[in-house]
């Protein structure tokens, strides 16, 4: 169901972009170059060797073994390529999208595709000793980490803290580890990431390497969740929930425990390649397809108000 949803989103994105890019013709050389790079990336990174070999063989046969190809625009190429990738792999996470830069000068507002509210979107006290931290994205950036340090230091007097993840678009695993280190003991195992193809394994843990003070375990934490949270955002919510450090308020999350690399292709496209699977330490399982269930079910729009009520009740005990 989750992968079907991703396929629908990718299809809608391509259809949306078609209106702005229908004059962007794709020449044969660029097409061959792009497919060659896609094949190399899949061979190198895709987490299942058997599927990777099948996709590589199918792409080579369909795209590289012909001397010419019919005229088509870039959107037409991407739509067909995504159909072929899905048919060959059965994996809705393996996709190709536009790179925003190809629209510059083509009558397309490039800012439509910009990431908004990177790092900390808002940090404040809602009421006496109830802190509120809203996250926009947790990209692998020193600026994001500095923003987290500043925000959490400003909220260090909180006796209850609301973490608003409802619009968290991207959550890099190292940034998630860093943020969780403010709330969980040192060396707490969060998840193990594996790539069976390369026999690769990485264990994500909390550390003492934080610039501020760790929040005391008496600080009540409330996490606002939404159906659009995936990957690192889900790990963030679930780690605090399963350690008994947070109450999750909102709706079940998307249920994506497969990590993907974003790889630039021919300076025109972005290939997303599944490369690792997260596994939980206590169960050797994950939340793929199921998501993280909230402790308190609430409409996304009402979850902040409800969490605030819960925090006030906690402090008034």
Automatic annotation (TrEMBL):
Secretion signal, residue range per the UniProt entry: 1-21
Pfam families to which the protein is assigned, alphabetical: Peptidase_S41
SMART domains given in the database record: TSPc (SM00245)
Gene Ontology molecular functions: serine-type peptidase activity
Keyword Metal-binding: no
Origin superkingdom: Bacteria
UniProt KW keywords: Signal
A Gene Ontology BP annotation from the UniProt entry: proteolysis
Domain Tail specific protease intervals: 91-299
Protein name: Tail specific protease domain-containing protein
Species per Swiss-Prot/TrEMBL record: Thalassotalea algicola
């Amino acid at each position: 169901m989750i992968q079907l949803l991703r396929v629908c989103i990718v299809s809608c994105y391509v259809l949306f972009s078609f209106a702005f890019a229908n004059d962007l013709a794709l020449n044969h050389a660029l097409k061959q170059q792009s497919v060659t790079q896609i094949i190399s990336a899949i061979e190198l990174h895709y987490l299942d060797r058997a599927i990777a070999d099948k996709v590589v063989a199918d792409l080579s046969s369909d795209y590289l073994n012909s001397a010419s190809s019919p005229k088509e625009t870039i959107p037409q190429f991407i739509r067909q390529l995504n159909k072929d990738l899905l048919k060959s792999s059965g994996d809705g996470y393996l996709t190709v999208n536009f790179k925003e830069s190809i629209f510059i000068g083509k009558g397309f507002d490039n800012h439509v595709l910009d990431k908004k509210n990177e790092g900390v979107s808002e940090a404040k006290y809602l009421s006496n000793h109830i802190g509120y931290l809203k996250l926009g994205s947790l990209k692998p950036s020193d600026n994001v980490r500095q923003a987290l340090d500043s925000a959490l230091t400003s909220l260090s007097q909180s006796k209850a803290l609301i973490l608003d993840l409802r619009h968290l678009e991207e959550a890099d695993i190292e940034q998630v580890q860093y943020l969780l280190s403010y709330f969980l003991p040192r060396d707490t195992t969060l998840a193990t990431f594996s790539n069976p193809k390369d026999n690769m394994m990485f264990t994500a843990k909390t550390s003492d390497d934080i610039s501020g003070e760790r929040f005391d375990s008496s600080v009540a934490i409330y996490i606002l969740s939404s159906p659009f949270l995936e990957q690192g955002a889900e790990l963030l919510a679930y780690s605090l929930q399963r350690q008994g450090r947070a109450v999750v308020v909102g709706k079940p999350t998307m249920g994506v425990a497969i990590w993907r690399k974003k790889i630039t292709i021919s300076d025109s496209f972005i290939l997303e390649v599944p490369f690792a699977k997260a596994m939980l330490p206590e169960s050797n399982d994950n939340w793929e397809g199921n998501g993280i269930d909230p402790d308190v079910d609430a409409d996304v729009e009402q979850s902040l108000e409800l969490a605030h009520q819960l925090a006030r009740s906690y402090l008034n005990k």
